[in-house]
Amino acid sequence: MKQAQHFFISGRVQGVGFRWATCNRAIDLQLTGWVRNLSDGRVEVWAEGEALSLAHLAEWLKHGPSTARVEGLSESMVEAKNYKDFREIA
Question: Does this model's pTM top 0.85?
């Protein structure tokens, strides 16, 4: 059954390839949704898919790519919107 999670990641997460790496990781995990930078310096992620894949993404988001320094991660379960793919939003 498809589930959805909404994440906010803080720290040094912009300008370090975080969105690109998150997009690739989500696609590898067969998730749909999106990732975008926020004006306050955080990254926002909406991901939908199987519970195990979402758990793997959540674990990965705790550290992100090697160029990032994650200082905070918040997540909440949300209602799926049935996105067809995973993409970066500029």
Answer: yes
